[in-house]
Design a protein that fits this description.
The protein has two helices and eleven strands. By secondary structure, it is mainly beta. The strands form two sheets. Strands 1, 2, 5, 6, 7, 8, 9, 10 and 11 form a nine-stranded antiparallel sheet that branches. It has a two-stranded antiparallel ribbon with strand order 3-4.
Amino acid sequence: MSEIYDKTNIFKAYYGQVSEDARLAGVTDEVTLPNFENVSETLNLAGTVGEIDSPSAGQYKSATIDIPFTQVSKEAFGIMCDDSTSIILKSAQEIFNTETLKKTHIVRTITIKGMTKGHDYGKLKKGGYGNPTIKKEVIYYKDQVGEDVIEEIDKFNGKAVINGEDVLGNVASLI
């Protein structure tokens, strides 16, 4: 192994498009990304010894993301009212070369679209963060490292690609 994907150096959260006049979605220092779990059915068949939880390829349960901010702001809560706008997390990831002992950086871009499920105004804390959050139901998720699409899920348009592979295969052509 000559390269180790080390850590996130820095990132910014945008809403809309990333461009020179992009709107920052507020200030945050950490975002927990959504967890995707396949829809499944428990099989309990004659001839088997126990149950098997059988996942359906390309079918995902509800997934949410909590987007935290340091404080309440007009910019941060602008994404709460507009479900048609993308949330874009753009980061510089460090890559450590074990042979040359040098670090390089690669861009990681995460695009999320979703419907607002709720919001929390956080708290008032003397000398501290308020930690308000916005909760979104994830309906679209794309995670891209450099030019490589690691995962793209589009629930309304029947797209489920993981590491460049269409996990639905020819399912759409069968119906």
